[in-house]
Design a protein that fits this description.
alpha/beta; Alpha-Beta Plaits; TIM Barrel; 16 strands; 28% helix
């Protein structure tokens, strides 16, 4: 058995105070001056370490508080209370909610899996990935229980074109035919979000974290000269449409090269393959009409990987209107996966997906829907304390100074998040009884989809079909 892959994490405190969900209000008027004030009996020492954050001028108690309400309930004069923190409610948006961002902040700081301890008290289903549940039928198996089990569970994935068959040589031995792939120990590729502040320090942090994890990151061509140190062995070079005329010999050292969908991209794929036969070629395509018709010609041209991207909420990009009216990633991905299966081409290429991947569980669900691996973007920015301000590019000053992140600090935060997400994937795989994540790809039988269950349950009664209202 190969050596077990281990991702080392280390506590890395935040540089800036993140707003907590509630704000502590305490008043001196009417105080009895009790010998043992409830504030000094706080089990988390919130009041002992209370201060004013010099950068945001916020009360640090609002972030340190764990919301046990002991001080609120114990004060004999009811002088301590808690109210909703308006700064907290302004974090993110209706998809990247304050709760989601707070979980990412916690994982990036500690490298640990967030546990509420009170169970799930939310709605039965919801939009997007919340309408999909994974099968946990093996959760009681004691030898295959994720990060605590005795059986090794692999999170390694193959990126590229796998061999269609193996040739046995006349003199013994064997050789692969038409194969061009690399193995990554993680199903995560570190990417860059669209519409956000980018800077050489942040790009350097992505490259440094990828090298330390022995995973891959996507680096735009324009940043190559700005990176003080990076390993080409773990870099997927990204070219935009204007850079397709560059000499392929200039990026021969990179194992993967990605280009955006554009007119003439098939010719670019052929030219790159002819110049660098061992290089893995990726084409980045937006989800939407016509994408399925583009797959077969690109495969014939030599494309090894398709990177399918959705918007920040996991919806089809380029559409106006509310999110509920736009197709979601999981349905679009299942259709593309099944198209390749029907064409007999699924095992010839790798499918990557990005957009709307905010939680570790979204990775598992995307792979169930047909992806081989995922490209992360906004979640990585949140690990670096990004508040996901809607007017990011219009702001004169970033509230968390993303442009000046210390390299070592940023690398540790990214590794912590990936370590916490990997551990959650191990728990999911263990609960499913799987020993490697490759077996999860396209296994829709290990998941339940609310829309499908709803149709199966109500169609015989009401004659209802998907897309129709029950009213």
């Amino acid at each position: 058995m190969p050596k077990k892959y281990h991702l080392e994490t280390s506590p890395t405190p935040a540089r800036h105070l993140a707003p907590g969900p509630s704000s502590i209000l305490d008043w001196e008027e009417g105080c009895r001056k009790c010998h043992r004030c409830v504030r000094w009996q706080c089990p988390y020492g919130v009041y002992l370490h209370r201060d004013v954050d010099p950068f945001s001028l916020a009360d640090t108690a609002d972030s340190l508080c764990k919301h046990c309400f002991q001080c609120v309930q114990s004060c004999p004069m009811r002088l301590v209370s808690q109210a909703v923190n308006p700064e907290y409610t302004r974090l993110g948006d209706d998809y990247w909610t304050p709760d989601v961002l707070s979980r990412i902040y916690y994982q990036a700081e500690t490298g640990l899996i967030p546990v509420s301890g009170a169970g799930y008290g939310g709605p039965f289903t919801g939009p997007g990935f919340d309408a999909m549940w994974t099968d946990m039928s093996e959760i009681v198996r004691p030898t295959r229980d994720g990060i605590h089990g005795r059986e090794y569970i692999s999170t390694a994935v193959d990126l590229g074109r796998k061999p269609e068959f193996v040739r046995i040589e006349p003199g013994g031995g064997w050789s692969e035919t038409d194969a061009c792939f690399v193995e990554s120990p993680l199903p995560f590729i570190l990417g860059l979000p669209q519409g956000r502040r980018l800077s050489p320090p942040v790009v350097s942090a992505l490259a440094g974290a990828a090298e330390e994890m022995r995973a891959f990151c996507l680096i735009p061509y324009k940043y190559l000269n700005d990176l003080p140190k990076f390993s080409a062995d773990f870099t997927a070079l990204h070219l935009n449409r204007e850079q397709l005329d560059l000499d392929p010999a200039d990026f021969r050292r990179f194992p993967l090269v990605q280009a955006d969908e554009a007119d003439g991209v098939e010719a670019w794929v052929k030219r790159l393959k002819n110049s660098n036969p061992g290089q893995i070629v990726m084409v980045r395509l937006p989800f939407g009409p016509g994408v399925q018709e583009r797959l077969e010609p690109l495969i014939q041209a030599g494309a090894d990987i398709f990177h399918l991207w959705a918007d920040a909420h996991g919806r089809q990009p380029g559409l106006d209107g509310p999110d509920e009216a736009k197709p979601f990633l999981k349905e679009m991905l299942r259709e593309i996966h099944m198209t390749l299966v029907d064409l007999g081409l699924r095992d010839r290429v790798t499918l990557l997906v990005s957009g709307g991947l905010a939680l570790a569980e979204h990775t598992a669900k995307a792979i169930v829907c047909g992806a081989d691996a995922v490209v992360l973007d906004l979640a990585l920015w949140a690990a670096l304390e990004c508040r996901l301000c809607p007017d990011c590019l219009d702001r004169r000053v970033c509230p968390v100074e993303l442009e000046t992140v210390p390299l070592d600090w940023a690398v540790r935060r990214l590794k912590n998040l990936m370590g916490a997400w990997r551990n959650q994937l191990l728990e999911v795989l263990g609960a499913m009884g799987l020993r490697e994540i490759r077996r999860l790809r396209g296994e829709v039988g290990r998941a339940m989809f609310f829309e499908q269950l709803e149709e199966e349950s109500f169609a015989p009664i009401f004659g209802w079909r998907k897309g129709q209202s029950l009213k």
